[in-house]
Amino acid sequence: MTPRPDSLTVEVVDLIGTVVARYHEEYEHAAAEHSLTGTQARVLSLLAVGPQPMRKIANCLKCEPSNVTGIVDRLESRGLVERRPDPDDRRVKLAAATAEGARTAEALRTSLHFAREPLGKLTIAERTLLKELLQRMLGGTAE
Which of 65, 69, 105, 142 could serve as 48's disulfide partner, Cβ 3.0–4.6 Å? Predict the structure, then answer.
């Protein structure tokens, strides 16, 4: 017989679900303001950090590399992304944000008020604890 989750666990899971749903809703809205889909915006945000091979992007999105090719094609046609040879392996192509792509990713990031405003109500100690707890939940270690 599977043990029944306690009510606190159920409440925490429900709250996490609500936070995730609200974040995704706002993220999709912010992406649309830049004429992007949520997935295109996510790829652009990943590439704004640095060039990535298509396979790594696919792993982050948990999708097939062929899907990433189409997404990168559309972003490239808008001048937000470019393909470059990997300096370590010329057989591999890296996708990289252009200067315009990096500006768009930054504008997208700064327009996400839902994620930023509630966190601003927490003290630095509370945000640090929340970060550490989330990292632990995901199996990582606190930095």
Answer: 105
Give me Rg for the CA atoms of the chain: 18
Domains of the chain from N-terminus onward:
19-111 (1.10.10.10)
Query: Across the 143 residues of the chain, what is the mean pLDDT of every consecutive 10-residue run?
Result: 77 89 88 94 95 93 92 97 92 94 94 75 92 88 57
Rounded to whole angstroms, the Cα distance separating 9 from 26 reads 26
In angstroms, the first-to-last Cα distance of the chain is 38
Cβ neighbours of 54 (radius 10 Å):
20
pLDDT in tens, 22-32: 888 888 998 99
